[in-house]
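Batch job 17 of 40 flagged for manual review because the log was empty.
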Amino acid sequence: MPGRPETIDGYLAGLAPEKRAALQKLRRSIRTAAPRAEECISYGIPAFRLDGRVLVWFAAATSHCSFFPGAVLEDFEEELAGYDTSKGTVRFAADRPLPPRLVRKLVKARMARIAAPKRRSIERRSARVEDASGRGRRRAALRRHVR
């Protein structure tokens, strides 16, 4: 493949037909699970970005295809038992693609994982607002006084 691809279609065009078909199936499953996500190329491989953050990646290697949903794999050990996995990566043969239902579960879990820090940040901000109202400062003063 000459140069780096700029689109997922460009990336897939340079693959063997069986790998292209497996990754197209994976792409459709990701799109179904995250319809708002944007397609992009990240680190030279196809990815989906949601709200400015990369959600998942996928790629083709010499002897397998890979799906990179991140650290959510630990919650799906039983369902991934027949696949070669490592931290954040699932490797599969082009003639044995990942089931669409499993892909959708992994993508949804990744979306939840990405959204979690936002919730914690909102909670911290609301705690700061309480402190600004004076209640938080008074509680801290009382705690010091009681000790």
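Reviewer: the log was empty due to a logging misconfiguration, but the result itself is present. The longest strand covers residues 53-60. Unflagging and moving on to job 18.
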